[in-house]
Specification:
Elements: E1 11-16, H1 25-33, E2 40-45, H2 53-65, E3 69-73, H3 78-84, E4 87-90, H4 99-106, E5 111-114, E6 127-130, H5 135-147, H6 149-164, H7 169-186
Length: 188
């Protein structure tokens, strides 16, 4: 069975977002700079939104200084990057249930994200859920998946399974209503 990103032997960490300060990219960059993973790279996909110029300059300086970071910019083919990745990271400070997390999961990638953007990610099963603003936790989880590729593959498969079995929102709500009505009928 094909394993995203691991088939070619490269370990690739993917971040994909329209970056604003709330996406937490600075925590991922800080985490990445604290790692030394031979053969691994961090791939940043997406453009910048409203972001203070000094923060943008800080991002650019970190990216230029580290040859293991590739900045792609905007793309019309995000699926290409999901296909090559080994793990997806979104250290968002506030999000809910981001589409990119579900896209990564559907692509069979384990996800490292924060409690504020976890959506369908179940900690330890389909990825890892870390506290916001915690570059140390992000670093530790990236390193764990790098050193335990079997766990990365297992979590990626579980992530894919979760998305495949997800019910549409309307259907899930309808089932909740049906259960409430069933319970009320039994108590009359």
């Amino acid at each position: 069975q094909f394993t995203p990103g691991l088939a070619a032997g490269a370990f690739q960490v993917l971040y994909m977002a329209y970056t604003t300060p709330l996406k937490g990219l600075h925590y991922l960059l800080e985490a990445w700079n604290g790692l030394n993973l031979p053969g691994a790279e961090l791939v940043l996909v997406g453009g910048y939104g409203a972001i203070p110029s000094e923060l943008r300059q800080q991002y650019d300086a970190i990216i230029r200084a580290n040859p293991t970071i590739r900045c792609i910019g905007k793309t019309q083919s995000p699926e290409e990057y999901y296909r090559r990745a080994s793990v997806f990271v979104l250290p968002s400070l506030t999000e809910g249930n981001p589409h990119v997390v579900m896209e990564a999961m559907a692509s069979g990638l384990p996800v490292i994200t924060t409690e504020n953007a976890a959506g369908l990610v179940e900690d330890g099963k389909s990825g890892f859920v870390v506290p916001i603003r915690d570059s140390g936790a992000i670093r530790a989880k990236i390193e764990y998946l790098y050193r335990h590729l079997d766990a990365a593959v297992r979590m990626g498969r579980e992530a894919r399974r979760v998305v495949e079995n997800k019910k549409p929102f309307g259907e899930a709500i309808f089932e909740i209503y049906q259960e409430i009505l069933r319970r009320e009928r039994t108590h009359l």
